[in-house]
Amino acid sequence: MSLPSSPPLLPEQDLPTLPTFAPIASASNAGLRALNRKRQLSDYGSPSSDPPLFSDTTSDGGDASHYEEQPRRKRLVRGPWWNVGKGRGQSLRRSMAKTERLRNGDSGVWMGSDESEASSDCLISSQQRMQELAMQDMADEEMSSDETLPNAEALAARLVHGCVDKGKEVVDLSDRGLIHLSNATLAPLHQLIRPSFVGVTHPPSEDEFSPLTPSIQLFLSRNQLTALPLELFNLTNISVLSLRNNDLQHLSPAIARLNKLKELNIAGNNISYLPWELLELLDRRGKHRQITVRPNPLIEPCDLSGPSPLPKANFTRVMQTEELARCTDTRDTVNNLRCKYVAEQGTLSMRGELELRLKLGRMLRIQYLQEASKAGRELKLCREELIYLASSAVQYFRGDGTPLRRTGSQHAGGEEFAACLDPTATAPSGSGSASTAPSLFELALHSLQTNFNLQDFLPKMSTFPGISSSLASAIRLAAANTHGLGNETCSTCGKHFIIARAEWMEYWFHGWSSQRELTSEAVLPFLRRVCSWGCARPSEAGEFRC
Amino acid sequence: MASSSDYVTLVSNDGFSFVVQRSAACISPVIKRMLDPKGAFMEARDNTCTLQNINGMVLEKVCEYVYYHEKHKDARDVPDMDFPTELCLELLMASDYLNI
């Protein structure tokens, strides 16, 4: 047999070489039928009523002899001719375009004829082509992300993409077994817009003018995340964020950036303290926010189990409002209570002290509210009380960030953040110790951070003589801040700083006013970090937020 | 010579000397220890510190900072001090050494 037994080889590479089409080959060997159907090269100039179909028979896998035996099966080809036989694997593209399996006008070889049907085809097919190109881009993106990311995250990335495409505001990535979440996965959420009103059947009314800014609801619960991607804190449109049941060790202070947050759930993590910024979120000032913190292994100021040490009859009695109004100085009243207790029962335990402070805070709060209502000011109250209880001893740091040795004996017990009565007792003495001015170290580091690209400098750092290890770590921290979430904010003066000069834990009561006794569930620890030793001023007993 | 005058002299490694107030200079624990009248260092006798690893240009900025710190000790909104960018790293190392 003179005919080739296998189909002609198709070009595999991308180069637009002309494939060896069977039809042309068959024109010489096969019968008249094929000759009639197919134009020969010399026919190009002459007008023909043949429908401008571009056919490809090579996929049928037969030799030319098939043409005589069975009716020819034509396969319509989409795309330019050099893609023939290439795109078999792209089933996604095919399925997306399946509904409009029309001839593609961009065959590149045959011109369209005068038939009206064909010209309308051209219009449709060019539209379709545009869609296809878009689909192809998307498919490529997804495929590339498949290769670089682990499975669980690739799936998450696809879900995020799906939500962005459909304009869905609820992004549910819960229960996906995520161990790590990268910035690239969440970044598409920046492009999410609320779907606008699509129907155009009637003239638009006023209700339809709504903002396109979405209120994203991001659910990351029941994964194994140990850290959150930085990009999360840039998504300021998040209104609901659930991080329930993950393995987070701490919550970044950057959480305060999500100022549209209405609901935050960090329950079931490994968090032992909260950032100071979360107190500002809890202090809602009229905004309704629901923040679920427990259960978490939060540290406690002191042992809060068991019944209150204060005798019920005299101490935890509810003060009548008239009685409160008569109290000119509430602090004196509480001091009297303390003296009375010491006289009757001996020394007051830390627990008792905390309960007295809680009482003081409550009384001051009620007095403040009474005054405000008398003055006719409008107040937006939250139902829960937020009252300062105690601080741990302040840990001071040197200019380069190394901790200053504590002179007190508090550190010995291993309870690093236990509440104490005089938090600033360990303050370093000497001139300029209580200054609020930034250190020269901080100023120079800040200048270095803003004027130079520290990322380039880091590898060369070891070649510089005279850079101590603390200096090197400070520079590394500054470099990390520029590429991350920026510098920290001082919790006292609000200035940005790179090196914290002091930190301590503050315990605040967060619960209902009906609660008489202090329980461990109602006390939240907040870590405060400040920019200078002068800013290391813990809150005063009796401080409260409305 | 008086063991503790109100002014002390800081000398850089290239021979520039700066006369600054003792109270201002003593914000650095290192300088303070050197100039401690109770200590037996030669610096305490002469009221002069020679800083072997700081050059004149940097020491000038350090002295400027020392007064800046004195001025803004209790101020609430402290404006940041400006330095020439090329001195940043040297200043950082100097401040690390002087612990200020």
UniProtKB/TrEMBL annotation, chain A:
Region (Disordered): 1-22, 38-72, 87-115
Keyword Membrane among record annotations: no
Source superkingdom: Eukaryota
Keywords linked to the UniProt accession: Leucine-rich repeat, Repeat
Coiled coil regions, renumbered to chain: none
InterPro entries: Leu-rich_rpt, LRR_dom_sf, LRR_domain-containing
Entry-linked SUPFAM superfamilies: L domain-like
Compositionally skewed regions (Pro residues) per UniProt: 1-10
Protein name: Uncharacterized protein
Organism expressing this protein natively: Oleoguttula mirabilis
